[in-house]
Amino acid sequence: MEKSDVKISRKKPIYPVSVELRKYLRSYQREARLPVGYNDLLNFYESFPVIDKNGKDTLWQSPLYPPHDIERLHNGLKRAYAMLKASGNLRIVEHKYIDKIEYCTFGNSNPFRIKIVNRLNDIYDYFYVKRADASRIYGLELEEIFSPNQVNYLVDGNSLIEEHIAGIPGDVFSKTRLDHTDYNPKRIAKEFVKFNERCMITLLGDMRAYNFVMQITPDFDDFQFRLRAIDFDQQFYEGNLKVYMPQYFKENLPYVKLAMEHLTDKTVLQYQQEEQSSIVHQVRSERHRLAALRDVSKKDNISTSDKILELRAGLAQYHNNPDYYKCLTMTDIIELNVKNVIRQVRL
Fold it and tell me: Which of 50, 156, 182, 239 might form a disulfide with 34, Cβ 3.0–4.6 angstroms?
């Protein structure tokens, strides 16, 4: 695995949700009438920075709302949480209260992070309210279809609510736990190779360490690891192929070094093939949903012609496959990626 660094667009535009995409979301129960939207949460009059336990600025802000508006916002957020988690069953929020609303000034989506707490036992959960960006929605849907992970979100107008994906941030894990004596480094390296392969095939970009989390599951004789993406804003937007390959980001260098140290070329190829087989299985089981999403995204304009031309040329060279030059959209490119994977798995 090579190591490098990648430059990407500093600020990707927010793409509106098209009529066709909304029809798709309605068909798959992703659309709902939310009691509180993104614009409602923007109506704060002041904010102050959220500082972590080490005194460092987290780049999140704690907004202050007019006293007369707090009860409405909190009640609406609890109902939204019930819609996200239990199809609107309000019994799950009977004993819960909104503890914090925090606003992120960093990145494209500028999300609000909501902390909801059960007053009976102090168990808490998080969820997010964001601007409904078509790029992110396509990324979430492709994650649902191609990966072994489930994602949970709802869209209403220009608002999107999304559940929290639990795990240790990738950058924190690499700094504090990568050399843990109880962890098998080969298992971690294997997971990074498979994650890298899936991102490239599905064109999920900007998977720097702080945009994915590590989930750890104790097994009867070892620990199992899974890398999960938590940021889907850079779904098939950029033209640089390396943007879709996590191995090229300097923030991921500890994972790259781990793979280079503990894996051979043969085992890397084996794990890439395992991920390809998993994707083929997902394609077969979700073929109708994938076809519906393909038909919608082909009509959508969520990148630029220059970036499409750049990416198809990069993939044509990378795979030594001139068929990529026939691709007219980012959707065409992903479709050809998947067809190539299916052919390889059949060989």
Answer: 156
Closest CA to 133 of 293, 17, 25, 19: 17
Which residue from 206, 315, 185 is spatially nearest to 256, judged by alpha carbons?
Answer: 185
User: How far, rounded to the nearest angstrom, does the alpha carbon of residue 17 sit from its chain's CA centroid?
Assistant: 18
Task: Please report the pLDDT score of residue 329 as a whole number.
Answer: 96
Please list the helix, strand and coil fractions of the chain in percent, rounded to the nearest 5, in that order. 50, 20, 30
Q: 177: buried, middle or exposed (CB in 10 Å: 19+, 13-18, 0-12)?
A: middle
Name residue 276's amino acid: Q
Q: 62 forms bridges with which residues in the sheet?
A: 48
Tokens 């390809």 belong to which residue?
A: 276
Single-letter amino acid code for the residue at 1? M
In contact, 184 and 223? CB cutoff 8 Å? yes
Taking 50 as the pLDDT cut, the residues of the chain under it are 3
Cβ atoms of residues 164 and 151 within 8 Å = no
Q: What is the pTM of this model?
A: 0.93
* Alpha helix ranges (H) inside the chain: 19-27, 38-41, 67-86, 134-146, 170-176, 185-202, 253-262, 265-285, 287-299, 305-319, 330-346
Instruction: Report the C-alpha gap between 249 and 252 in whole angstroms.
Output: 5
Which pLDDT does position 5 carry in this prediction? Answer: 63
pLDDT of res. 58: 83
Contacts of 277 (CB under 8 A, 6+ apart): 345
Domain spans, the chain: 19-163, 168-346
Paired tokens of 115: 């902390």
**Residues 115 and 127 sit within 8 Å (Cβ to Cβ):** no
Contact in structure between 154 and 130 (CB atoms under 8 Å): no
Q: Is 50 exposed, middle or buried (0-12, 13-18, 19+ CB in 10 A)?
A: middle
222-256 per-residue burial string, b: 16 or more CB within 10 A, e: under 16: eeebbbbbbbbbbbbbbbbbbbbbbbbbebbbbbb
